[in-house]
Amino acid sequence: MMYIDTETCGLCGPAVILQYAKDDGPVHIHNFWTNPVGDSLNLLRELCNDTVVGFNLAFDWFQIAKMYTMLERFVNVHGDISAFPEDRIEDFANLEADARTGSCVKPKSAVDLMLVARKTKYQITMNRGDIKIRRVPTVLATGLAKHLEQEIIFQNILFARRKDRYAPKWKVYDTKKRVGNQWVDDPEFKDVVLKFKPSVALKALAIDALGVQEDNVLLFKDVEVDHEFRPNEIPYAPFATAVRDYKLDKKSKDKKESKRIFDKRHRPWRWAWPDVIHKHISHWEYYEPARAYANKDVEYTRGLFNHFGCPADGDDDSVLACMVGAVRWKGYSVDIPGLIKLKEEARAKMRSTPMAPGPVKYYLGQVLEPAEQEILKDGTGKVILQELASWKNQTCPMCAMLGDGAIDADCSVCAGTNTYTHPVAERAQEVLDARLAKKEIELYDKLILAGRFHASFKVIGTLSSRMSGTDGLNAQGIKRDTSVRRNFTFSDDGSCLVGGDFDGFEIVIAEAAYNDPDLRAALLKKAMCPGCLGKGVKKGKPCKDCKGEGQTGQKIHGLFGMELFPGSTYEDVVISKGSKFDKYDYGKRGVFSQVYGGDENTLVKKLGVSLEVARRAAIGFAKRFPGVGKAREKVFDMFCSMRQPGGIGTKVEWHDPCDFIESLFGFRRYFTLENMVCKSLFNLANKPPKTWKAIGSKIKVQRRDREQTASGAMASALYSAAFQLQAANMRAAANHVIQSSGAQITKSVQRKVWDAQPAGIGPWVAQPCNVHDEILCVTTPETKDQVATIVHEAVEAFRPRVPLIKMEWHDMRTWADK
Questions:
Q1: Helix axes 505-514, 556-564, angle to 10 degrees
Q2: Structural contact between residues 512 and 803, judged by C-beta atoms closer than 8 angstroms
Q3: For the whole model, what pTM was predicted?
Q4: 546 and 399, same domain (yes or no)
Q5: Distance between CA atoms of 711 and 576, rounded to whole angstroms?
Q6: Cα-to-chain-centroid distance, residue 423
């Protein structure tokens, strides 16, 4: 077993040193630049023949894969294994980009202690939202902040990234109120806010878990190379020639990034790593505090491994961390001419549509009545535009004037359909599309500059364990549009692309969690195919959804649509798909809001239906399929800590909530921190300090709907914050069962595909990628059938727990071929 860490020239530049220790042996520090090429190659080969233990292996293995392929490329080009890289920096910089397509570098097995920690109580070190107590009377706000500071004791690691970790954690902020058409400071109220800044660093965990004295810990900032020698780098194009050849495009490039790249032009590599690496080489070779820091990294890693009970190697997350690093460095092929064409099309879209707030307001106002223009007083941001774009398929205002349910067959507005789309909806969508085009241009520029798609992921990127995109290019956020994805070719010459996505992934997982036989029977019952509306043919080809049969198992979207529109049959809902009054789309959006912890109020907000309709649909669906209702009740019983048996406005009772919820496969999402804060807010609202009552009872404040004493308003603010926190917990708990289970399934299948790649150093055989519920793999023609078998067996292994799971696996020319 090898405990490892690397120190690098920047975050994307090459590794400078590798520090490592075998089992319980001493720590060694190997400088790649002051040792012969052959020695470094041998060390890395030895490393790949062992189990590696590290902290954030996605980063370190990216660096190891990069360094090995650079050394390998150097030998292939120059044939000199005795050369010292420090003497050949220009050669290494010039061959760096070509090294991306070199050998695959894969360890025998792995343990990533950062990911191990995220499955324990140290899940708290992951990013989380602020906790806000809104509209606290100003006279009591400072006292509340001080009281909470003393009442709730947090671990220091939750604030380790703050400049002053010992400053007050709860702070008082001004709040706004609407006066006419403007937002102004509200002197009567303040917000009291807690902002977390946890650290996921190895040193922070060593202090908290191992009891290392903070004063004895060297931090990176204590030993790093002088700031003036930080290299310019581009995470999505992680090689020096990309920085050197970077072209400034004022119309599409991020100005801050452009300024960073071009600030210091007098260096031949524009301050990319070749211009500064000499300083880094000597720093890590001779500066004793830096070497002591590097040594301790390995010791802390070994200490954490023991602290966590010597976790077994080879878990999916740790193995995938090394895969992510290796795959990120290699990258996937893209169609550069196609991306250039898309970029020009996006620019044309931007030129034809106003985007700035003033022109947009004028453009939309042209088709809005004076009373309707009130909505624009809140600006022209994304939320407002989405609201306006949704003004379609509404009840006809002209027919509505005739009375309830009346329809004029000759109506000049709706032509007898009783549905109406406001002209502003199309214009708002145009503006949304134009603003999106600006973001798309940024994506295309990044890919064009890199010449490849360097997909980078955090293996446990969310509290549900899902992967998330990182390093300046979010692979999870790339549009599903065929015109975009067909330019992601993925495979290089001599290899091929295969892949597939899970069919109705969230729904089949939800069905497994509900374990309702009636719902399972309904979903298996054959009915009209929503994909082709029963025709068996779509766009002149056999429908992929039903294989040309015209029928599929019933979709949960259609079943929920029946509840939203009583009297409609399943076929009625399906036939309406794509029409002006799309009941199937209403059902789809509605059922997903329920699956992910929403209630009737969520349906009102998402669908624009009345509260009565929303409540009837939610109750009717739960009554028809009791397992759905039981699943919601289970989450309620586990996490509804504050209850009002007598109804709204009656006494609030506290019930101790659960500390965690598990996915179908055991991954825990902890709520210990949120529960602690929630209980403190509840206790304080129930029994505030007597001095607050004495002060607050004499002062009146005007809330939105009524006048209150300051002490009463304080209690209202505390209850409101606690109930909001509780509601967020309940939604997150409901989401976790579905999202975390889905993440574990996709990661398990992806890991099985990665197992097709032999450990050690060798040609690429399997290069997987996972985006949401899709799994892609670049492989060789000889291994293609083996990968297909692996995927089939891996998916089938989940069938006992997820009976309706299904994935279509097939050959692909590009990402668009699904």
A1: 70
A2: yes
A3: 0.89
A4: no
A5: 54
A6: 35
Question: Over the stretch 321-374, which tens digit does the pLDDT of each residue have?
Answer: 999 999 999 999 999 999 999 999 988 888 888 888 888 888 888 888 887 887
- Is there a domain that residue 420 lies in? yes
Which of 688, 708, 737 is the last residue in one of the domains? 737
- Please tell me whether residues 661 and 603 are part of one structural domain: yes
Domain span holding position 434: 336-445
- Reduced to 3 states (helix: H, G, I; strand: E, B; else coil), residue 568 is coil
User: Could you give the count of Cα atoms lying within 13 Å of 330 in the half-sphere of its Cβ?
Assistant: 26
From residue 794, alpha-carbon distances to 318, 460, 747 in Å are: 18, 21, 11
Q: Looking at the chain, how many residues does it have?
A: 818
Q: Report the alpha-carbon distance of residue 625 to residue 620 in Å, rounded.
A: 9
- Please identify every stretch of the chain with a pLDDT value under 70, giving residue numbers as ranges: 180-181, 247-266, 393-410, 412-420, 704-705
- Let me know: does 409 contact 396? Beta carbons within 8 Å: no
Is residue 18 within 8 Å of residue 30, measured between CB atoms?
Answer: yes
List CB contacts of 537: < 8 A, sequence separation 6 or more.
543, 548
Q: Which helix (H) or strand (E) covers residue 356, if one does?
A: none
Let me know if residue 542 belongs to a domain: yes
H/E/C letters for each residue in 122-190? HHHHCCCCCEEEEEEEHHHHHHHHHHHHHHCCCCHHHHCCCCCCCCCCEEEEEEEEEECCEEEEEEEEE
- Joined together, the tokens standing for residue 199 give 């650290």
| Helices and strands: H and E segment counts in the chain | 30, 30
> Residues 431, 363: contact at Cβ < 8 Å?
yes
**Residues forming a β-bridge with 553:** 526
In a shared domain, residues 439 and 576: no
Q: Rounded CA gap, 385 and 372, in Å?
A: 13
Are 326 and 105 spatial neighbours (Cβ–Cβ below 8 Å)? yes
648/513 same-domain check? yes
55 and 98 inside one domain: yes
Residue 686 domain-assigned (yes or no): no
Element at 472 (helix H, strand E): none
Is beta strand 537-538 parallel, antiparallel or unpaired with respect to 468-469? unpaired
Beta strands at 109-112 and 51-54: parallel, antiparallel or unpaired: parallel
Q: What backbone phi and psi angles, to 5 degrees, belong to 191?
A: -105, 135
What's the distance, Cα to Cα, between the start and end of the chain in Å?
41
DSSP state of 217: P
Q: In whole angstroms, give the CA distance from residue 779 to residue 327.
A: 13
Torsion of CA 703, 709, 711, 717, to 10 degrees: -10
Token duo for residue 123: 């899940």
Place of tokens 């719902």: 519
Q: How many domains does the chain have?
A: 4
Q: End of a domain among 711, 737, 763? A: 737
**Residue 109 contacts residue 313 (beta carbons within 8 Å):** yes
Structure confidence by residue, pLDDT tens digits, 522-551: 999 999 988 888 888 887 888 888 888 888
Burial 574-584, CB ≥16 within 10 A → b, else e: bbbbeeeebbb
Using alpha carbons, list the distances in angstroms from residue 66 to 15, 239, 306, 753, 781: 8, 10, 30, 22, 26
- The set of residues, in sequence order, having a beta carbon less than 8 Å from that of 621 and lying 6+ positions away, is 559, 560, 563, 591, 594, 628
- From residue 75, alpha-carbon distances to 70, 94, 102, 505 in Å are 9, 14, 12, 47
3-state secondary structure of 807: strand
Please indicate, yes or no, if residue 492 is contained in any of the structural domains. Answer: no
Q: Under a CB-based contact definition with an 8 Å cutoff, are residues 177 and 161 in contact?
A: no
Are residues 341 and 440 located together in one domain of the fold? yes
607 and 622 housed in the same domain:
yes
* Pair of tokens at residue 381: 């941001």
d(CA 669, CA 119): 8
Helix H or strand E encompassing 395: strand 394-395
Tell me the two tokens of residue 417. 């359909």
Query: From CA 12, how far away is CA 62, in angstroms rounded?
Result: 9
Q: Are residues 298 and 354 in the same domain?
A: no
Instruction: Give the pairing of strands 394-395 and 170-179.
Output: unpaired
